[in-house]
Amino acid sequence: MGYVKLSLAMLFFFSFLFSPEYKNEIAHHFNNLKEEHFKAVAIITFAQYLQKCSYESISELVKNVVDLAQRCVANKDDLGCTKSLQAIFLDEICQIKRLHDFYGAMADCCANADPERNDCFLSFKMTYPPFLTPYQRPEPDAVCKELKEDRQSFLGHYVYGVARRLPFLFAPTILALGDDYELAVQTCCAVTDIDVCLERKIAALKEKSTEMSLWHEYSCGIRKTFGERTFQAQKLALLSQRFPKAPFEEVYRVANKLKGVYEECCDGNMMQCMDNKARVVEYLCSKQNVFSSKIKKCCETAAIDKGQCVVEAGRDDKPEDLPLIAGKYIQDPDVCNHFAAGHDKFLAEFLYEYSRRHQEFSTEMLLRIAKGYEDVLEKCCKNENPSECYGKVEEKLQSHIQETEATVKTNCDLLKKGGEFEFQKAVLIRYTKKMPQAATETLLEITKKIAAVGVKCCQKPEDSRLPCAERYLSIVIQDMCKKQEATLINDQVACCCNESYANRRPCFTKLGVDENYVLPPFNPDTFNFDETLCTAPPQIWQENHLGMLINLIKHKPKMTDEELQTIVTGFSGMVDKCCKAADHDTCFGEENTKAREPTVS
Question: How far apart are CA 593 and CA 588, in angstroms?
C-alpha cells in the first residue's frame, strides 16, 4: 500500500490522554468553554445534524443542554450527568416530535445504539444541501444594529448559518470565523460605503469557510478510507514541512496529537474537538522556540482564535545547514541494519527528513517517495550486495519527481495556451475515455472542478504549484471516489480509489481507455441540435458543446484526438452556418443527419 506504515507502538509512543473518561463530561466542557462558547458550540453541533431546523428550534434544544450543564456543575452526582455529551445531544434530537416527518429515514437512526446511532446521523450530513436557500446577507443597517444591540444573537445566527450549510466544518474553525465576521461588520459599519465593504469581506469569509470545510471533509474521508497509519503519515509530512527546524520527536508528537483532534471532530463530537484542538495549540505555544517563530503572534491572541491563526501562519524557513539526506539513508553501509532494527521508526524519520527539506513538494508526493524508498529497501536488503542495490534509489526517486513536475508543467502550459474552457475540454476528453460509464453530469462537474484547480494553482509561483495542484486535485478525486462508492463506475476507477491514498492522482493520470466498457445502444436523439444553440448564453453553449463531446466518446471511446478535433471543428462550423441560415430548423435538421453518420459507422 502507498503509505508509510507506522506501528501501533509508534502511534502511542508519544501520545497523551485525549479523551479522558470524565465522570461528568458535560460539566467539564461547560466549565472549560464557559457559557458563551459552550452555547455557540452547542448551536454548531445541533445545526450540523439538523440542517433543516430553524434558529429558534435549535435554540430550544441548546437551552435544554445548557440547563442540564448548569445542573451538572452544581451537582456532579446527578444521574443525567453521567452520559457522554454526544449521547446527550443525540438523545435531544431523538426526542423531537415529528422528527420522521421532517427528516424521513434519518429519524430511523434513533433505533440504533451508540456509536452506530452517531455514525448513522453523520451519513445524512450534506454540504450546501439543496433544501437550503443560498445565504442572503441582511441589509447593512440591520447587521450593524444587531451587532450593537445583541452581540450574542448576532454571533449565534452567524455560526448557525455557517454550521447548517457546512456540516463538516470543525467547531473551532467556525468560532474563529465568527470572530472574523464580527470584526468585518465592526469595520464596515464605521465606513461610509458599508454595503460595498460588507460585500467584499463576507465574500472572502464565505470562500475561506468553504475551502476549510472541503479540507476537513476530505481529511475525515481519508482517515475513514485508509485508516490511522496513512492519516498519521500525511500529517507527519505536512508538519515536517511546516516546522522544519523542530526535531523529529516533537513533530511526531504533534502529528500524534492531531490524530485525537480529527477523531473527535470527524465524529461530530464538537465539544471534545474544541478541547483536543486547544491542547494541541497550547502545546505548540508552550514550545514556540522549538517549533516556529511564525506562531508567536498567534499565541498572544484569544484562545478561540489561536488554532486558526496557527493553521494560517505558514511554513517556517528551513535550516540552511541541513546535510544531504543521502548520507544517512543511501550512502550509509548500515542502512539495512537500521531498517531491520526499527522499520517503522526508520521510515517515519526518512519521511520527516525528506519533507523538511522539500517544502515545494506535495504531501502526497512525499508519501510516494517514502513508499518508493521502502520498496527498494525491502528488495535490496535481501540482496547479497545491498548497498550497491539501494545506492541507485535516488535515481528512481528523482525520476518520479521529474515525471510529476512535468505533468504539472504540461497542464499549466495547456491552460495558459487555450484558457479555462479549452483546458476543461481537454481534461473532459481524457476522463470520459477513462470512465465512459460515468453520468454526463458527473463528468461535467469533475472536469469543471479540475479546470478550477488549474486556474487556482497555475498562477502560483513555481515552487508552490505542485503542493497546490495535488492538494486540490486530491479533494476532487476524493469526491469522485465517494460517487464511485455509491454507484460503481468501473473496476479501474475503483482500483485507483481504493489501493493507495498517495498514488491516487498518478493512478488516475495513467488510466487509459476502459477496455471492458460496453458501448450503449445508439440513440439518434443524442445528437440532435436545434436553433436554441443560436441564442444560448456562453455558459449553456459550452455545456452543450462538452455534452456533445461526452456522448461522442461514450459511443466511440477509442477515437483519436485528431478525429475528435475534426468533429469538434465541424460542430462549430455547423452551428455557425445554421445560425446564419434563413431557416435555422431546416439547416439543423440536414446537419443532424450528416453528423450521425460517422458516429454509427
Answer: 9
pLDDT in the model for residue 596: 64
How many helices and strands in the chain, by DSSP H and E?
29, 0
The identity of residue 209, as a single letter, is S
Q: Which string of DSSP letters, residue by residue, matches 183-249?
A: HHHHHHHTSS-HHHHHHHHHHHHHHHHHHHHHHHHHHHHHHHHHHHHHHHHHHHHHHHHH-TTS-HH
Distance CA(350)–CA(328), nearest Å, equals: 9
- Dig out the grid coordinates for 574 from the structure: 455547423
d(CA 6, CA 8): 7
Structural domains in the chain?
Answer: 25-216 (1.10.246.10), 224-312 (1.10.246.10), 326-391 (1.10.246.10), 406-510 (1.10.246.10), 524-600 (1.10.246.10)
pLDDT of residue 147: 94
pTM, two decimals, is 0.89
Are the beta carbons of 394 and 343 closer than 8 angstroms?
A: no
Cell of 364: 502526497
SS (H, E, C) 80-129: HHCCCHHHHHHHHHHCCCCHHHHHHHHHHHHHCCCCHHHHHHHCCCCCCC
Report, in angstroms and rounded to the nearest whole number, the Rg of the chain calculated over CA atoms: 27
The confidence score (pLDDT) of residue 289 equals 92
The answer to whether the CB of 6 falls within 8 A of the CB of 352 is no
Is 25 annotated in a binding site? The answer is yes
Give me the pLDDT at residue 22, please: 62
Q: How far is CA 454 from the centre of its chain?
A: 16
| CA dihedral over 107, 109, 112, 115, signed as positive or negative | negative
Return d(Cα 497, Cα 2) in angstroms, integer: 12
What is d(CA 511, CA 493) in angstroms, rounded to the nearest whole number?
A: 8
Q: Is 16 helix (H, G, I), strand (E, B) or coil?
A: coil
pLDDT at position 4, please? 40
Other beta carbons within 10 Å of 80:
12
Q: CA 593 to CA 587: how far, in whole Å? A: 10
413 is in an annotated binding site: no
The CA-based diameter of the chain, rounded to the nearest angstrom, is 87
Q: What is the DSSP-derived secondary structure letter of residue 328?
A: I
Task: Please report, to the nearest 10 degrees, the dihedral formed by the alpha carbons of residues 436, 440, 445, 449 taken in order.
Answer: 40
The Cα–Cα gap between 585 and 214 comes to 45
Asked if residues 298 and 196 have their Cβ atoms less than 8 Å apart, the reply is no
Q: Is 264 annotated in some ligand binding site?
A: yes
What is the structure's pLDDT at 17?
37
User: φ and ψ at 113, to 5 degrees?
Assistant: -85, 155
Predicted pLDDT of residue 601: 41
* Average pLDDT per block of 10 residues along the chain, 601 residues long: 38 39 84 96 98 97 97 88 95 96 97 97 94 84 93 96 97 96 96 93 95 96 93 96 97 94 96 96 95 93 90 91 91 92 93 96 96 94 89 91 95 96 96 95 96 97 94 95 90 94 95 91 79 88 89 90 86 88 89 65 41
* Ramachandran category for residue 22: left, alpha or beta (phi over 0 → left; psi -120 to 50 → alpha): beta
Q: Taking a C-beta distance cutoff of 8 angstroms, is the pair 51, 160 a contact?
A: no
Residue 16: per-residue pLDDT: 39
